[in-house]
Design a protein that fits this description.
By secondary structure, the protein is an alpha/beta fold. It is built from four helices and 14 strands. Strands 2, 3, 5, 7, 9, 11, 12, 13 and 14 form a nine-stranded parallel sheet that branches. The longest helix has 17 residues, at 233-249. The radius of gyration is 18 Å and the shape is globular. The N and C termini lie far apart (61 Å).
């Protein structure tokens, strides 16, 4: 832990309205760090290695801390990191979308990361998707309204269920669960925490390498929740404005 050798890659610190595009980082301890920043977009990036670097190839592929309105899209992590993708400490509105990795860990690192969206992600083997980091004294892994949407495993199944401290009011929608996780969903915890689970993809029916495609031809739609929200934003906001105007006239 914290012993991976290598320089860091790209860092946004106290930044606003910034972006990084098509950046490939190899043999780095922490390829992308975003902290105390707002309105940051990272797209088209690959974080990888040139050879095995031991048990873990990096510490955090991406670490977003104390930040808001961050988009990480169209990325690949073809290696093992101690924490692959991390949200930590008072984040608000962070999105990871359209990415893939060897055996991804969607790391909620505690101290109340709020309203994170994970959408259209190939987690590879799927053995450690929900493993969170941080110290137990730092509270639950996440604050409210974490949404996991269209999470699938091209070389396995999502083989663990979320734990009790995953945070309140979370959403698990269109997840490729392994057979035992479909049976062992923690219903009592889910009810107490207000979790929503919908659109379970039967792992036995998934065609390997085709996201959201089940043997009965049921397709996850939209494939990516974030891009769908962006595409319908103007229409939804226009409707909201009309409704608010109507209420004001009443």
């Amino acid at each position: 832990h914290l012993l991976e050798e290598g320089w860091n890659g790209v860092e946004f610190a106290g930044a606003a309205h910034c972006w990084a595009r098509n950046v490939h980082v190899y043999n780095s301890d922490n390829p992308v760090i975003i902290w105390s920043s707002s309105f940051v977009t990272v797209t088209g990036s690959v974080w990888s290695r040139t050879g095995s670097r031991g048990r873990y190839d990096c510490h955090h592929a991406v670490n977003v801390t104390l930040s808001q309105d961050v988009l990480v899209a169209d990325w690949k992590v073809p290696m093992y990191c101690y924490h692959d993708l991390t949200v930590y400490a008072w984040n608000n509105g962070v999105v990871f979308t359209n990415g893939s990795g060897t055996d991804l860990n969607l790391d909620h690192h505690r101290v109340f990361p709020y309203a994170t969206l994970w959408s259209d992600i190939d987690v590879g083997k799927g053995a450690r998707v929900w493993v969170g980091g941080g110290l137990p004294t730092w509270g639950p892994y996440a604050a409210a309204y974490t949404t996991h949407y269209n999470i699938w495993a091209s070389t396995g199944n999502v083989s663990t269920a979320p734990g009790e401290r995953a945070g309140p009011l979370g959403n698990w929608i269109a997840i490729q669960w392994g057979p035992e996780q479909r049976v062992q969903w923690p219903q009592e915890v889910a009810s107490r925490q207000g979790w929503l689970r919908e659109g379970v993809i039967a792992a036995a029916g998934v065609v390997q390498g085709q996201q959201g495609q089940a043997s009965n031809n049921v397709q996850v739609w939209p494939v990516d929740l974030h891009s769908a929200m962006v595409a319908t934003r103007e229409r939804r906001f226009s409707r909201l404005g009309r409704e608010q105007a109507a209420e004001a006239d009443m």
